[in-house]
Design a protein that fits this description.
By secondary structure, this protein is α/β, with parallel strands linked by helices. It contains ten helices and twelve strands. It has two domains: about 270 residues, Zn peptidases (Aminopeptidase), CATH 3.40.630; about 55 residues, no CATH class.
Length: about 400
């Protein structure tokens, strides 16, 4: 098994005076927010609950509409999600009866690190940063305060299956179809250049829409967006059968869901500045949301991965000409200071489960919206296709 260190970042003092609204983003990312946690609730109470005219639905989602000045109807829904992939020790409560130890009290806040030369937030522990999707929420709060017309949805439980947005879409399908909304834009994508064109293995927006949005974003000389990236799913995927154009925009984080997650603050501010200038009503709507082709029936057995297609975007993560080394840019499965034995035991348990129940796991992945091409793309992203993981003894691990 391969073992490499975390990327190398400087541990510089946090600036006393941040540019723009970055001080709020930094504070937002100090909250530890697994779904249903005290940290998520504290975050919601501070940043969402007191927004004028915002509504909370029965699921706990928050929704706000800013009408257009000419009362012609809003054309765009914007989405982000309140939960993160932070570890929640309380999720182990059901197993605590089997162990003679107390469950650790969950954290609400976390310590962040800052690299001034790369203008990047990072962490030096075993948990994620939470820029997925704290940065998306920060963007939307600024758009609200700027009075950008639109429907703003802050969804719950995206990280555990889009549960909040699926509930919202099912409960309000007829009402949503009767609005003038034709675009659904999520701010929940890694990197600095992707406009996602496919989710759940299906086209989620037209080429005309993606190219038009990229053209408006790229009016900033600091940005280089392009349509065509393939994504697994985020909350905008829940509305693919309701709105013509559904997408997800890269907001500058990297290595989401891992302890190597980072957020490029320079890119977040540059993107926000340009989003406030986009003429959302002028964007086209060409995809037919009722024409989503049926998912092919599962035939069993290995069907092949297929190759790259036009949705696979090239998304270099460039810290404004401060390039990462190959080692720093290597997406890792393990951290060098983790217990090799514990990690290998967990790997062996999962591999054993896959070996015992391949059909059941494949069926479950399909129900979650995954296809063979999506899984292959994710494995390629993390350079795991060629990883030879032994299932023998812990002393086989290279350190």
């Amino acid at each position: 098994m391969r073992y490499t260190a975390k990327p190398s970042f400087a541990d510089d003092p946090m600036p006393e005076n941040w540019n723009g609204d970055l001080a709020r983003l930094v504070d937002m990312l100090t909250y530890v927010r697994p779904a249903g946690s005290r940290g998520e609730q504290a975050f919601i109470d501070k940043y969402l609950r007191d927004i004028p005219n915002i509504c909370e639905d029965a699921y706990g989602n928050f929704f706000l509409v800013i009408d257009s000045p000419n009362n012609e109807g809003i054309t765009t829904m914007f989405t982000s999600h309140t939960d993160t992939c932070h570890f929640d020790p309380m999720s182990l409560t059901q197993f605590s009866m089997h162990f003679d130890q107390a469950i650790e009290e969950p954290l609400i806040k976390q310590e962040l690190k800052y690299d001034a030369s790369k203008q990047t937030l990072w962490k030096d522990d075993h948990d994620c940063l939470g820029a997925d999707d704290g940065t998306g929420i920060w963007i939307m709060l600024n758009m609200i305060e700027a009075g950008i017309p639109g429907a703003y949805a802050f969804f719950r439980e995206e990280e555990i299956g889009r549960k909040g947005s699926i509930w919202f879409a099912e409960m309000h399908k007829d009402q949503l179809e009767g609005t003038a909304i034709k675009h659904c834009v999520s701010f929940d994508r890694k990197g600095c250049s992707d406009i996602v064109s496919s989710q759940k293995g299906q086209p989620c927006c037209s080429k005309a829409f993606g190219d038009a949005l990229a053209k408006q974003l790229n009016q900033s000389p600091s940005l280089n967006y392009k349509a065509g990236a393939l994504g697994s799913y985020t909350d905008s995927a829940s509305f693919m059968e309701i709105f013509p154009e559904c997408t997800n925009i890269a907001v500058g984080y990297l290595n989401q869901h891992t302890s190597r997650e980072t957020q490029n603050l320079r890119h977040a501010q540059q993107l926000l500045d340009q989003l406030l200038k986009v003429d959302w009503a002028s964007l086209p709507a060409e995809r037919d949301p009722k024409a989503i082709p049926p998912r092919p029936a599962y035939q069993g057995g290995y069907q092949g991965y297929g190759g790259h297609n036009s949705f696979y975007g090239n998304d270099p993560f460039d810290y404004d000409s401060t390039a990462l080394t190959a080692a720093e840019d290597d997406d890792l499965l393990f951290d060098s200071d983790d217990s090799a034995e514990d990690r290998l035991d967990e790997l062996n348990s999962i591999m054993g489960l896959i070996g015992d129940h391949p059909r059941g796991i494949a069926e479950w992945l399909i129900t979650q919206g995954f296809t063979a091409s999506i899984i292959k793309h994710e494995l390629e992203d993390y350079e795991l296709l060629e990883l030879d993981i032994p299932s023998t003894e812990a002393n086989d691990v290279d350190s």
